[in-house]
Amino acid sequence: MQCCGLLYKLTRRFYRAMPSFPSTPTTAPSNGASRDFDFVQRLMHHIEQHGTITFAEYMGWVLYQADGGYYSEARGLGPQGDFVTSSHLCADFGELLAVQFAEMWQILGCPQPFQLIEMGAGQGILAADVMRSLAQDFPDCFAALDYGIIEKSSRLKRYQNALFQTWKLPQKPRWLDWDDIPHNSVVGCFFSNELVDALPVHLVEVSDGALQEVYVQVNQDSAPGRPFVETLAAPSTPALQTYFDDLNIDLSHYPNGYRTEVNLAAKDWLQTLSQRLQRGYCLSIDYGYSADRYYLPSRTEGTLQAYYQHSHHNDPYINIGEQDLTAHVNFTALEQWGEALGLKTIDFTKQALLLMALGLGDRLTALASDATDMASIQHAIQRREVLHQLMNPIGLGGFGALVQGKGLTSDEVQQPLRGWTVPPMTM
Ligand SMILES: C[S@@+](CC[C@H](N)C(=O)[O-])C[C@H]1O[C@@H](n2cnc3c(N)ncnc32)[C@H](O)[C@@H]1O
């Protein structure tokens, strides 16, 4: 099913200049499924050893397995790759988030250090924009800043490091593993942009009113280009049924063949994070729905999508290791799990409103008054187009922005966060 909420990943009319991404040699085409024959062979061998694996394990492998997984090779991010994110479009995204982080620092009583921990930092562009903006516009906050990055892909870590060398920023982030962060230690904010949608999901299907799980096995027919096929069986874990029970979703009335995703990895991630947070916030920006919209009985094919060279489709068994796989985020689940973990929901908004409240409207207004000659008018038109992409309601602007908090005093909780207030009407 093509979902209009995914159009943002197709847009790349305007984007900022980026250093070119180092390419990775791949082996010759094998059977059309993937250029990386060895990688597919290794996955086939792995699956044959187990008979079948869950789709979640398959997705984890094709995205993150060393020497061939999509993110481990890191070929696909950015305008030259398969998709762009808000940070590829312009620096404004990071600059406006910096406004919010500086305010959080103040609400927390200007702690030293103020830890900002970005999870899933991609090419590091957002980190660079946020740090540069804090250094320029909020020097006191910057002086207290301890910026950490938690990144799964070693290759992307190297890219991030190189970016910081190239762009000569006043401070480098620290690259952290979860084990480096003591429990109950972080005072500040954990945040992510398009991380949760990249976590491996379980695929489930309703079969005669019962919950079944999708497993992947090697295709014994060895059809060209299709090394893997699916099979249905009982869920691999009772957590899948519990997930729907906790959301009060009764799948027994759903149409036969109804298929959807369950992101159990997001629960583990939230738990790990909340254990480390002593006092502060968790900000998650991503595409997704509330549970009632996510699991509409009419959404019979779920939200799983594959991205390859700026086009998308729903076949996860081609371009193996060379296409991104992603599923929408269930924000209700993040809120429910958060509450159980001591991460209280503070507020939820859409990216368009968040950025407008943080000053995007003022930037748009200034564009008109700054344009005085033909060159500046053309520049203003181009910038306006980019800023509009950030708030396009059927694209990036429709993303959710969930802020949760832990260890905050009642005074701190009551102080409104600027990004979640109604933006002033500037136009
Ligand atoms: C879709 S990209 C988003 C990149 C970046 N935030 C942006 O907006 O351009 C997902 C990123 O999350 C990283 N990632 C995925 N799972 C992760 C995990 N469990 N821990 C840390 N990083 C992870 C990927 O390697 C990649 O850098």
Topology:
Elements: H1 37-50, E1 53-54, H2 55-64, H3 70-73, H4 86-89, H5 92-107, E2 114-119, H6 125-137, H7 139-144, E3 145-150, H8 154-166, E4 174-175, E5 186-193, E6 202-207, E7 210-218, E8 228-233, H9 239-246, E9 259-262, H10 264-276, E10 277-286, E11 288-289, H11 291-294, E12 305-308, E13 311-313, E14 324-326, E15 329-330, H12 331-340, E16 344-350, H13 351-370, H14 374-391, E17 400-406, H15 410-414
Parallel strand pairs: 2-3, 2-5, 3-4, 5-10, 11-15
Antiparallel strand pairs: 1-7, 6-7, 6-9, 7-8, 10-17, 12-13, 12-14, 16-17
Helix pairs in contact: 5-6, 5-13, 10-12, 13-14
S-adenosylmethionine binds next to loops.
